[in-house]
tRNA-t(6)A37 methylthiotransferase (Acidianus ambivalens), 417 residues
Amino acid sequence: MKVYFETYGCALNKGDTYIMMTLLKQRNHEIVNNPNEADVIVLNTCDVRLETGERMKSRIKELRKFGKKLVVAGCFSGAEPGVVKTLAPEASIIGPQALTKIIDAVEGEKVFSINAERSEITPRVFEGKIAIIPIADGCAGDCSFCITKLARRTLRSYSMRSIVEAVKEAVKNGAVEVELTGQDAAAYGLDFGGKIKLSDLLNEVLSIEGDFMIRIGMMTPEQFARDIDGILEAMRNPKLFKFLHLPVQSGDDNVLKLMNRKYTVDEYKELVKEARSKIPNINITTDIIIGHPGEDENAFENTLELMKEIKFERVHLAMYSIRPNTRSALMKQVPDSIKKERMKIAYKLYEDISLSIHKEYLNKRTKVITTEEGKKGSIIGRTLNYIPVILNGVEVGKWYDVEIIDYSFFDLRGTVV
């Protein structure tokens, strides 16, 4: 059959799509790029925020109009299956931890499966020069605000063997960047009894021959702390981007407690301090939620002070939105008008800090690996600490010595030396 995929959300969701594509290609189904050409339409959904969930509802309604067999997969299916069933009674529903059921959904009758199952299938389908390979699904946390926990209920690490094989296949197919992704990458191996950690996996992957770079996906601070020595030691390897995505979510201890995060602000600062002391020029990226219940003016100011102190290169700012069946939804809410005003203030500070960081690269030379096409014929490359550099007149998938000639808060602009 001809199958069309449409994917929303994080890197893990994209990796899940590649796994489903792999399963179907192994059974000789054809992946197409247009829903009009397809026999089956697969919508891999996200549900992380209110507006995302609303977008998924609209897209389900729109895709039904094609009159094709419809499969709704991903986090929206896993967290709100009743809503999906109401919107599209005829659709198959597959949770993000039941990916192998895609075969039954495509080849057979309607499927409903949202329960976790263990699978060893890692992607063998890759697009472009960036390979996204899930290493673990689910997490060990229980954050009050998180609906994803309801969709990905169980921590499941993929075997080291299957991940290594996927990386080898990706490199063989021309990947120059391999992202090892998960809901919490540093939780890797906890479900194996803790005998294997992320650093063990990194050392195995880094031993693979080839000219490629590894990027570690998002990690919670508490799980990073569990393996900090091993991860930072692995990061000394020239094939590993000097990049850490450590979501802090708030700069206030009271709010962190309400969020059910398992660390304090001071503990987070110590992790960053140790990382920067061992890996010079490391890029610390974070996530911050603005307006979570319990965030008063003092708590918000504490978050701004943390941003100023740590000077994150990249901050993923999100205004808190109520998610159904989460504990935070039952708490007293911060008015929308206040959340919006705080978002403006936080975003302006983020821009100013990022501009000041990027300004330091002006007129300096750096090595850049090109990974993807950008806008208007440009090519996007990455520095060794994963800052994007916009180039022109170069090829994707190659290393270049670059001089930085301009910058914005979001990226650097360079020319090949």
Remarks:
- The longest strand covers residues 365-373.
- The two ends are 49 Å apart (CA to CA).
